[in-house]
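INTERNAL AUDIT FORM
Audit reference: QA-55
Scope: verify that the stored structure record matches its stored sequence.
Auditor: D.O.
Record contents follow.
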Amino acid sequence: MARALATNGATVYILGRRLSKLQEAAASIASQPLPPGAKVLPLECDATSKPSLQAAASHIAHETGYINLLLANAGVLGPNYMAISPRQENDSRGPLTLEEVQKALWESPVEDFAQVYKVNVAGAFYTTVAFLELLDKGNKRGNVRQTSQVVVTSSIAGFHRSWQMSGMAYTTSKAAVTHLVKSLAGYLVQWKVRVNAIAPGFFPSDMLQSLFGEGDFTVEGSIPRAILPLERVGREEEMAGTVLYLASEAGAYCCGSIQLIDGGRLGVMPGSTY
């Protein structure tokens, strides 16, 4: 996301808890030719801490005085429940029992479940709130034709009922994020601050590796068609194109929109509600 915006001339602040990772990302983007004025600036920030968010907003206010676009991209996976996935008829363990289900669900700490909501839902909400004044100043500055916008990263996980792989906390948190986006969009539009979401399927990430292991899954044929009709995960340019669409004049009429990019994954999942 940051690379796509900087490559197209934006000044981009990238925020996160691990400053060293941010500096690596900024250096990687800066190693390629960028348009005049474009830059990537790392800034340490915890999306679950109001003082940290306030400090980041104050820092940016001091340096630039406004923003046109806010991307709320923090997210964690949380506990998964692969141990209680449906079993094959020939499984030597026999049918899954309700006692086994209760034991597996009960063993996951309340704190782990709540942390997913803290990062994925509360983090998106308070990040948005922290930068409202700067988004308003972006509108007043009028340096771009489109009005200010928040883009939140949701997930296709919020639209299906299969939760053993990614976890009940994660899937329900993403459903909450999607509804949060629609609620904020309906409310903040009166100040011409738009709120939209991207709901990706599988894309290269630390989260993907935790599910599938190491490998280049962007290669067509690397994933069975029964799991993903396009037989691969999404590529960087496909996420970049979606971000640029929303950020540009082309997406200026989007407000409360959920951009689904999943390679057909939801179409082969039972109980999908998109």
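Auditor finding: record pair retrieved intact. The first strand starts at residue 11 and ends at 16.
Action required: none
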